[in-house]
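The following record pairs a protein chain with its ligand, BIS(adenosine)-5'-tetraphosphate.
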Amino acid sequence: MNLILFGPPAAGKGTQAKRLVENRKMVQLSTGDMLRAAIASGSELGKRVEGVMQRGELVTDEIVIALIEERLPEAEAAGGAIFDGFPRTLAQAEALDRMLEQRGSRIDLVVRLKVDDEQLLKRVAGRFAESGRPDDNPESFSVRLSAYNDQTAPLLPYYQGQKKLVEVDGMGSIEVVAASIDQALDGPR
Ligand code: B4P
């Protein structure tokens, strides 16, 4: 199964993807994690994206599509993947559909985590205090939220049109949200 975890920044996509990896032995493809690993390694790519990410802007489609394409064989071998934080633009969504189609595969389900802005701000402030992730500061977070509203949220009708979109209330505790995601994955579609 190929699943997209969709939602605004700090909605819990990464948190829930990690749980699915543990419980269901699924493969997680997180563009955010891949980009942070590139920065940590000091690679050329890392140097190119560091400022963009710190400001809270989106990295170019070309870069993230290439990162995902590189990892698709791994997803294929595992029988599918959780796409976490990808796609974030229409160009990325169309590229993903094309890349999967070339491999005789497709997206099966898009789970949208619905969380209001006030709750997102609380979560990100909590993580900033704990880990100091540079893009969790209030200024960058407001840029990330605008990027979501302007460039990512318009993907919802794209997946709705494909009848793949399922909405999950992401406001509850991690466990409560996890149970709702399980229901969406295991329930009738
Ligand atoms: P990501 O790494 O994807 O970060 P995110 O959207 O902010 O986080 P996520 O929704 O995964 O939240 P998390 O579980 O961590 O992207 C970072 C940056 O990378 C982007 O801004 C962009 O620059 C770049 N990028 C990545 N992909 C890209 C793409 N495709 N195209 C272009 N650029 C791209 O949860 C957040 C916090 O909330 C955590 O502290 C967690 O513990 C807490 N939490 C989660 N669920 C909770 C719950 N139910 N209750 C209470 N707390 C909860």
